[in-house]
Amino acid sequence: MKCAFCQPGGYAKLTEKHLHDSFCAMSQQMYSLRMRASRYEKHISGAERLLCFSELEDAASRMLARALDHPRGQAKKIKLSLLPVTPSTIKSGPLLDLSTLRVDNWQEGRQRACALLVATGVAPGVADQALEQLAKGPALDGGVMRGAMLVNAITGERLESDRVRGVRVSRMDIDPSKRLNIETFLEQKSLHNSRIIEAWILASKVAFYPEIIAELCWSDDPDYVTGYVASAHNGYQRITHLKQAGDEIGGRIFFLRPGVDLDPLVEQLQYEPILFGPPASGCF
Ligand code: PML
User: Fold this and answer.
1) Which position among 78, 125, 261, 269 has the lowest Cβ density within 10 Å, counted as fewest Cβ atoms?
2) How much of the chain exceeds pLDDT 90, in percent?
3) Domain containing residue 164
4) CB of 219 closer than 6 A to ligand 1?
5) Beta partners for 93?
6) Residues 66 and 194 grouped into a single domain
């Protein structure tokens, strides 16, 4: 099947909103909008967006609604933060190709995930160990982390300096002028929801940095069992089962090439603003 980007006129669906959004991304002040919800020390939910002014109110109220009604429990503290980001500092990049691997259960899903990680260059023992670590709870106390674990892809060494917080990836979104096309695609594939879009954008930002070979993720939301393996080479590969329903343990692992200079990489993951457009292949 041909995708809409490839079809004649695929880029010609310029509505008024589309034109406005395009103008917004090119010329106006952008904002990093972040949400973090917790209950005492327990992480409940988080979200990261990079938006122009006219998009803020709607996005903030959606984040608040998500934090107030979350399957991980009721939040006691919700932090919304908004910081200006200068448009001239914003980079652009393509989203990763997106594919879905259907598996019958989480055991099969994890086997497939392990094979996909090894195919990107992660050492087999390290991939096995990483799946185990994520399954038993990656934080020091065995719980979930707010951010990602960093792991040397060859030796398996844990590299993040804060094993409670991990590394949180921030300041990324879809380029407002491309949003309509990308969302239309996801709708056609029945994949149009904020969880998938946000995870796909985050994985695309992580894969933007050549120091990172691959990422493994599954949700800490007990109701959501789909996860993914992502890499610049093989794209965003969703796997329909990576854990058992009801399990509240999940998170992210970034597999790093040996010898990476950690501080600049962590700085970029946290603070470098990037807006994403359609995958380079033009098709999902
Ligand atoms: C999350 O819930 O934070 C992670 C979700 C990962 C998978 C999203 C998808 O279905 O593509």
Assistant:
1) 261
2) 77
3) 91-277
4) yes
5) 276
6) no
The predicted pLDDT at position 10 comes to: 35
Single pTM value for the model: 0.89
Cβ of 236 less than 6 Å from ligand 1: no
Q: Are 219 and 242 in contact (CB under 8 A)?
A: no
Q: Per-residue pLDDT tens for 179-238?
A: 999 999 999 999 999 999 999 999 999 999 999 999 999 999 999 999 999 999 999 999
Residues 77 and 150 grouped into a single domain: no
Question: Given CA atoms 192, 194, 195, 198 in this order, what sign does their dihedral have?
Answer: positive
- Is the minimum distance from the CB of 196 to ligand 1 under 6 angstroms? yes
Span 240-256, mean pLDDT?
96
Domain boundary among 89, 112, 132: 89
Q: What is the pLDDT of residue 214?
A: 98
The residue nearest atom 8 of ligand 1, judged by CA position, is 196
Which is the closest atom of ligand 1 to the Cα of 236? 11
In the reported structure, the alpha carbon of residue 227 is separated from the centroid of ligand 1 by a whole-number distance in angstroms of 5
As for how many domains the chain has, the answer is 2
- Domain boundary (89, 121, 151) is at 89
Does residue 4 surpass a pLDDT of 60?
no
* 283 assigned to some structural domain: no
